[in-house]
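Q: Got a minute? One more chain.
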Amino acid sequence: MMGINYITKKIATALFRQMGYPFYNGNAPVIITEPYNGEKNAGELGAVKNYVPDFQTLSARSWQAYTESEIAQLIIHNFLLWTIGSGLKFKAEPARDILKQSNIKVDLAQFIKLTESRFNLYMDSKRSTTARMKTFHQLAYEAKKHALIGGDCLVVLDYGRVTDKNKSVNARLMDGFYVQSPVNNINPGNNNNIFNGVEINQYGEAVAYWVLLDNMECRRIAAYTATGTLQAFLMYGLEYRVDDYRGMPLLSAVLETAKKLDRYKEATVGSAEERAKITWFVEHAQYSTGEDIKQQARAFAGHSIDPGTERITNDLLKTTASNIRYTTGKQTLNMPIGATLKSLDSKNDLYFKDFYSTNFEILCACIGIPPEVALNKYTSSFSSSRGANKNWEHKILFEREKIDLELYQPFYNYWLEVEVYQNRISAPGYVIAKNTDGYMIIEAYQKCRFIGAKMPFIDPVKEVQAARLKLGDNTTPLATYEQVTEELNGGDWQTNIEQAKTEHDKALELGFSGSVPQPTPLNTQNDE
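A: Always. Here it is, folded:
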């Protein structure tokens, strides 16, 4: 305790007693000061390891695990299915107050409608990718897949092809495995440094990426265009430490466990297969005559028996076999004295499910996906299944937010800039702000969000009834129609209401009429 040497022993004793320290023979306890490194008992934690990731080896091992292990494929596929699926829907939400404060007069309703229509259509088109083999949504799926398995994936945005007449932004992918530092130690200049293929400036910002080509040379890809728009960036699986600048595979922590579990499964299944080939065996006691039981089997099959034994004629064999089949439909064997016929089995198969399921759940928990979701198997009560679903939904929303910021948002930012410069979309003040570094106006136009598919409901009736209650009944609503529509099915309320009006008018035109059915009262009792 600081200052203990400057106060009297009496005051120190009173302070120690007030703090609850034990006393020995009326004397204050001895305070030992020593450094703490995590060990309470020396040697319990073993040697200290400061891991330095080998990104290329980790990537190769992770792809190997994904190729060989059905658990890895199951988890990765379900992870991608729910986070991206068939793609995320774009919703423009420009910051009205920022644009209004900057005295920018723009018809935001028209801007939103036109931007959403054009960008959603463009992402669904194969012209949004450089190779023209996939849509941007399909490319996003592959990009996240490569990031999760390989650790990271380089996304490059090109300003169209040379042959394109109406150029726009095209996306392409490069495997992060080939993002490597040049072997000849190139000095990038401008006080920049290259770490594992990522060129970093003095502020810690990634300004370029170095990619290994087929001719064993490295090509430099700038991270920004001449106008300062992001055009190349890495998507990450897991981020290790702040100064690594590269990503780690999602399976990094469970590679060894998954491999051992896979070997255990193969050994168990293989041994079961080999035992199945041995239908039975004969166990002889000490007083057994040692007679070979297979002699009878060969005799019933019509084969001759070993020399020196009694021969059985074919007629007798046929007669005996016919009688057995006629009476029981099965075969019988006359066991010699002291011989017992047994089947070959193992108790290991009984514990396979428990062992395999337990480790599978641990792997799922480590990666962050509920086992029920990974297996698409819900065997618990409604409350338990809904709890697992809501927990997974929270995880999905978090992961989608990362995908939005890492991939969809940069693609939209570049696309919007091209659309504005080519007068396809009207955004007053955007070009001036771009030339004067007016980032507030630019980001006010770029503000948006992306919506993915919603989790299926365990009990759709209860979910819809709860959503109806949120809209309020002669009280202040807790949600808007647009929010409730997105929560239920990820749709668009404006489109739905316009379509409903069209269908209603058409029904009246054809002579149909009827009232809208009212929802039944919500059952608030617990369903266990």
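A: Confidence is low (pLDDT under 50) at residues 307-314, 516-520, 524-528.
Q: Perfect, thanks.
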